[in-house]
Design a protein that fits this description.
five-stranded mixed barrel, single chain, 4 domains, five-stranded antiparallel β-sheet, Type Iii Antifreeze Protein Isoform Hplc 12, 19 strands, flat, alpha+beta, eubacterium ventriosum atcc fold
């Protein structure tokens, strides 16, 4: 590293979380992830965690290269509702060259594909609007030549995956995923002070990839009238935790409780706002459950009791 680059890096560390970009990045697979372009040893942990799910288009074909600039990175962060000013970047452009996909990466991709297919079969959205990111596979030291035989849900983001190895032996592994959907997500159209009641003019909607937990993608009627719990900057993606939402499910309401394996009626035992977990009981059996409010007539099951 040159003296000038060293000085720039020291200054950037004092200004905020530092992201050091590689000069040349070897990328396997069909697409470039922002995490592929970051020097992990010299960049902040929080940035690397966020960048793991940011994609920057296709990787170059064999024998070709692609140059990705800092301006492209900043534009993609803004498109996804992440403020690029929260990071101080070191480096201006990265030369991307193809590196080939490792066998274990191919297996991880196959597992993510089968989990996505399972979710779609359960009615969890459209194929072109649903993305499944595999966060972990345990144990991972299985043969990369395994085939995926079965997917069994263990929760909202946890799955048991049955693999068949080359010797035809069945192996169970635990997979943790993050499900993202392309949807209309709310952004602040102007600066909003804490405590202010949200008006329609305060909101603008963009179609971006987001998880249920990280963004306010409910109906306008649900968001308008909610109070800002924190200061919101113009252009900031609005998370449900940024708002004090109005309750859309009232104690005693009968709503549809949906999980990956069933869909039945349940009665709310407390009020609930969108994104909030509440207690309910099944209408028929009276067994208790915990579920996340998805709307005025639907909740997503988190845990079932007795």
């Amino acid at each position: 590293m040159t003296l000038a680059a060293s000085v720039l890096m020291l200054l950037s560390m004092a200004m905020g979380e530092t992201v050091v970009l590689k000069e040349k990045a070897l990328v396997g697979g069909r697409f470039v992830k922002l995490a592929d372009l970051v020097d992990a040893d010299r960049s902040g942990d929080a940035a690397r965690a966020q960048f793991a799910e940011i994609y920057l288009g296709r990787a170059p074909s064999d024998g070709q290269t692609r140059t990705i600039t800092l301006d492209e990175i900043r534009r993609e962060l803004e498109r996804r509702g992440i403020d690029p000013e929260a990071f101080t970047f070191v480096g201006r452009e990265i030369e991307v060259v193809p590196g080939g996909e490792s066998p274990i990466d191919a297996l991880r991709r196959a597992v993510a594909f089968e989990i996505k297919r399972h979710l779609l079969e359960q009615g969890a959205g459209r194929a072109d609007e649903t993305v499944v990111r595999l966060l972990s596979l345990h144990p991972e030291n299985v043969s990369p030549d395994c085939d995926v035989a079965e997917v069994r849900p263990r929760g909202v983001s946890d799955f048991t995956v049955v693999l068949i190895d080359p010797a035809k032996k069945r192996i169970e592994v635990e997979a943790v995923v993050r499900v993202l959907r392309t949807r209309e997500v709310a952004f602040a159209a102007r600066d909003i002070n804490p405590g202010k009641a949200i008006e329609r003019a305060d909101l603008e909607f963009r179609r971006v990839e987001s998880s249920d937990e990280e963004s306010a993608s409910g109906e306008v009627a649900t968001l308008v009238g909610a109070a800002a719990a924190v200061r919101l900057r113009k252009g900031q993606k609005i998370a449900l935790t940024d708002l004090r939402l109005k309750a859309v499910v009232k104690k005693g309401d009968v709503v549809r409780a949906v999980s990956s394996s069933f869909e039945v009626d349940a009665r709310a035992l407390e009020d609930g706002a969108p994104g909030q977990e509440i207690s309910l009981e099944f209408v028929t059996s009276k067994n208790r459950l915990r579920a996340k409010v998805a709307g005025g007539a639907r909740v997503e099951v988190v845990e079932v009791g007795r």
